[in-house]
Amino acid sequence: xxxxxxxxxxxxxxxxxxxxxxxxxxxxxxxxxxxxxxxxxxxxxxxxxxxxxxxxxxxxxxxxxxxxxxxxxxxxxxxxxxxxxxxxxxx
Length: 91
Known about the structure:
This protein has helices spanning 11-22, 29-62, 69-86. It is mainly α.
């Protein structure tokens, strides 16, 4: 089913849509706008899927194992000492 609606677009947008039709890329200016809306809808859906996955991962990590501040500091210091030795930066 299609619905006919009236919209306002800028002169630049109208010229772009007309040019797409004139160059044979689309059958009508309506087709240009329909394709743009469909692309935006897909983009929004992909973003919502990404966002849901991101927050699920953040929740998973928040509920997972954590190091104490002291343990994190100790591991960091050990890593820095190891890298300094590897690169010959000690002494």
